[in-house]
Amino acid sequence: MGRFLFSRLLRTLPAAWGILSIIFLLSRLLASNQLRLAELQTSSITGHVATAAQLRAAEFRLQQRLGLDLPLFYLTPTLAPQRGWGLRWQWNGWHNQYHVWLRGLAQGDLGQSFRDDQPVANLLSQALVSTLTLTTGAFVLTLAAAYGVALGLSRYRRWRTLVLAGLHLLQGLPVFVVAVLLLLFLANPDVLMLFPAYGLARPDFPPQPWAYQLLATGYHLILPWLSLVLVSFPALAVQLDTALQHELWQQYIVTARAKGLASRYVVNRHALRNALLPTIAQVADLLPALVAGAVVVELIFALPGMGRTMAEAAAARDFPVLLGAVLLVALVRLLGQILADWLYYLADPRIRLEA
């Protein structure tokens, strides 16, 4: 297994390098916009139009802070008239913007926030804990719900048409619609006040033991979890049910039943294992989809996390925080692909033999 996972990690390195390079180029383009904003802010703060010298001084200080006074890359193309106006590549050494940015990234340095001058890594790490708690719980519940519904449809066929219609209906609903409906019907004093409508805990409560805090956090996350699960598991359940129905008509299943094996054993041991293979491909898309949905859910339920952090950063034009969040989401997408490959490895013996 270790060799298999290592080979998959090596295959994701080019994609990871491409993502990092795109994020770097975006950061440089947005940094130039930040220079223009700094010029406007300098003029507005002083109450009069800043002189050219003041603008150059402010621009130079910001360039030094952002590292824009260094060469962009390891090599810089320049015109060479002696070669018929061809290009001559000048080596800039390791002291360039790209290398400094990669070195800082390897050390966990994502830059400084323009809004409050705090490290971006600290801001995102605090928000990421809440988002991962929400996303991980929704991921496990989504897999369990899809597995349970598909297995139930194979045993109780009389409800198949009705359940599939409900799944297709849920599949077409956006996550914010489901979240608002849950708030209206399950967190509304005029209808049913079963769950909290916002936040992770009541601020007026005194400090409690960690077990109580854990239960209180789970209680506050029930509606956010439901919002994500109800829009995520229908596609998996339908795909798994379709694959399972296909497998149940295969010759090896007919043979197993002819040998007198119990129907539950045949479904769980043989048919379901093979039906999982086409469904695993959707797992790679499930994790980043849950992260994107969690951003919306956090805004609706006023949860501290990536959603609120990105919304506040966008409102304040805090580009380093936004780019750091985009980088994290892109890496989660790559991790989802590695997770899908690992599940393929566990489900398909042929891949284990090839590895």
From TrEMBL:
<feature type="transmembrane region" description="Helical">
    <location>
        <begin position="323"/>
        <end position="347"/>
    </location>
</feature>
<dbReference type="GO" id="GO:0005886">
    <property type="term" value="C:plasma membrane"/>
</dbReference>
<keyword id="KW-0813">Transport</keyword>
<dbReference type="InterPro" id="IPR035906">
    <property type="entry name" value="MetI-like_sf"/>
</dbReference>
<feature type="domain" description="ABC transmembrane type-1">
    <location>
        <begin position="128"/>
        <end position="340"/>
    </location>
</feature>
<keyword id="KW-1133">Transmembrane helix</keyword>
<keyword id="KW-1003">Cell membrane</keyword>
<dbReference type="InterPro" id="IPR000515">
    <property type="entry name" value="MetI-like"/>
</dbReference>
<comment type="similarity">
    <text>Belongs to the binding-protein-dependent transport system permease family.</text>
</comment>
<feature type="transmembrane region" description="Helical">
    <location>
        <begin position="127"/>
        <end position="150"/>
    </location>
</feature>
<feature type="transmembrane region" description="Helical">
    <location>
        <begin position="283"/>
        <end position="303"/>
    </location>
</feature>
<keyword id="KW-0812">Transmembrane</keyword>
<keyword id="KW-0472">Membrane</keyword>
<protein>
    <submittedName>
        <fullName>Peptide/nickel transport system permease protein</fullName>
    </submittedName>
</protein>
<feature type="transmembrane region" description="Helical">
    <location>
        <begin position="210"/>
        <end position="238"/>
    </location>
</feature>
<feature type="transmembrane region" description="Helical">
    <location>
        <begin position="162"/>
        <end position="187"/>
    </location>
</feature>
<dbReference type="Pfam" id="PF00528">
    <property type="entry name" value="BPD_transp_1"/>
</dbReference>
<dbReference type="GO" id="GO:0055085">
    <property type="term" value="P:transmembrane transport"/>
</dbReference>
<feature type="transmembrane region" description="Helical">
    <location>
        <begin position="12"/>
        <end position="31"/>
    </location>
</feature>
